[in-house]
Amino acid sequence: MEFNILKIGDFLKYLTQLINLLALYPAVLVKVVRTQGSAPRDSGSWMAVFSHTLVGTIGGGHLEFQAVALAKEILAGRAALPGLQTVPLGPALGQCCGGVVVLEYRCVSQADTAFLQQALRPALQPLALFGGGHVGHALVKVLTELPFALRWIDSRDEVFPKQLPEQVMTEHSDPVHAAVADLVPGSKVLIMSFSHAEDLDILSACLMRMRVSADLPYVGLIGSASKWARFRHRLEERGFGAEDFARVTTPIGMSGIESKLPEVIAVSVAAQLLQTSQ
């Protein structure tokens, strides 16, 4: 079994499948604990090998084939747990990645459910999205496939879809900028409400919070250069200055992409968010 494209939803699905299967069968968990150079999957990637099936992936190819074979030998009692296994991804393995992967093997059962739910849940960057308009909806579709825990906020309760992935939490906040005060520390923020007045209040609340705690690593405001010029003037009237303005990213998205289609803007903004996470 090989999975070529992985989304955050896939990882959450795999975890649910693993917990359900462990209620019936034991497994061997194979986890990538460290990589060096080029590798098919990042550290933290995992798969659970059962005697009859496989959940998750460590990247496919011969690396995964050999790891599955060893895990099945362990399950059958014909091999011992190897501890940490260092695997060069060179010609001898039939993979040309050129890096090194360190694998950890662990026998797991239903008794390990609580540990696994904590240890294998993907680490997600907290992100607050203010605005449920066309771009907001397009962004949610993109971001739910990426490593973000999304808090989607609007002053209009009726704008949210009824069905959303579990990593998306919707919030009706009126006034909308009141939600800034209790954002998770380390949250990235995107501001694109239906109203310039709301955008200004949200941005002002973010800048005020940044003066106190400096715990919002990215504050992005959708809009044009003329919108930002007007906002700067109004923010100056509220006592903000150049040091505060330097904390704001506007316009948002990757440079060189001119399309105004919400879906294109969403991809561009998502790429910038990922870039700023490096």
Features:
2 domains, Rossmann fold, alpha/beta, six-stranded parallel sheet, five-stranded antiparallel sheet, 11 strands, 278 residues, 34% helix
What's the quick description here?
The protein has 278 residues and is an alpha/beta fold. The chain is built from 8 helices and 11 strands.
Structural commentary:
With 278 residues, the protein is of the alpha/beta class. It has 2 domains: 8-119, no CATH class; 125-275, Rossmann fold (3-Layer(aba) Sandwich). The protein has 8 helices and 11 strands. Strands 8-7-6-9-10-11 form a 6-stranded parallel beta sheet, sandwiched between helices. Helix 5 links the parallel strand 9 (188-191) and strand 10 (218-221). Helix 4 (134-143) packs across helix 8 (262-275). The radius of gyration is 23 Å and the shape is elongated. The model is unreliable at 1-5 (pLDDT under 50).
Topology:
Layout: H1 8-22, E1 27-36, E2 46-49, E3 54-56, H2 61-75, E4 84-88, E5 100-108, H3 113-119, E6 125-130, H4 134-143, E7 148-154, E8 168-172, E9 188-191, H5 196-212, E10 218-221, H6 225-237, H7 242-245, E11 248-249, H8 262-275
